[in-house]
Amino acid sequence: MNKNKYLIAANWKQNCDSKSSIKLINDFVKLFNKTKPKCDVLILPPSIYLNTILIRLNKLKVSLKKISLGIQNISPFLNGAYTGEISVDMAKDFKCSYSLIGHSERRHVFMEDDKIISAKTKLSLESGMNTILCVGETIVEYNQKQTKKVISRQLKSALLKSKDLFKSNQDKIIIAYEPVWAIGSGKTASLDDIADVHAYIRNTLNKILGTKKNTIKILYGGSVNDLNAASILDIPDVNGALVGGASLNSKKFIDICSSI
Ligand code: 13P
Question: CA angle 21-23-26, nearest 5°?
Fold first, then answer.
């Protein structure tokens, strides 16, 4: 596996204010310039601070090819009377090249169902965005050994409706496996479970695409930190990480980026 191809993404979620988001990106860029990690780095700030971060990156002369920007959520509609929503084109206006779709907090806190996530996936791919589709089981589903069934349903419902679009945009889709119970809990899935689920995702994608091999990136997320990142990123079929809490600490986040 070419280590340059790893993607490490920082999902800041609903954290930071204007001042602390500037400090976080300043501190991170300083460390980034010093350590020059080999991976692709993506920052997903709260959307209201996208422009603040964009201006900062420009001021610091950081190419958006080195540190990309993404949006944590998009509207399932292209545009129109949808109060409070942000369209994929609006995100592109602020130089976002990635969108995060179907995060478990969107699925379980904001009750987004497979239909909404499928619509968002389609819009995102149609707009040419790199699209990170999140999948993962709850603790109840995990205990009932339903993990693969749930993931298969989530992948198929999001990708089958846009199969041709998906087939012709394989380089634009990224899957993030985030067990819901591992998010923010300090508990990661075991290395064996991660390996097993990632291999299953790879296989399911092959079946959807009708191929024997695909090079779609599959990220792991759920309590990834500076101490466990190296062993998780070493697993076959793990092509990067989606980091929440630890991405709010510039030192921890750069250590994760440098652990490849
Ligand atoms: P934590 O790293 O805080 O567990 O969050 C993971 C996550 O949800 C990233 O999208």
Answer: 110
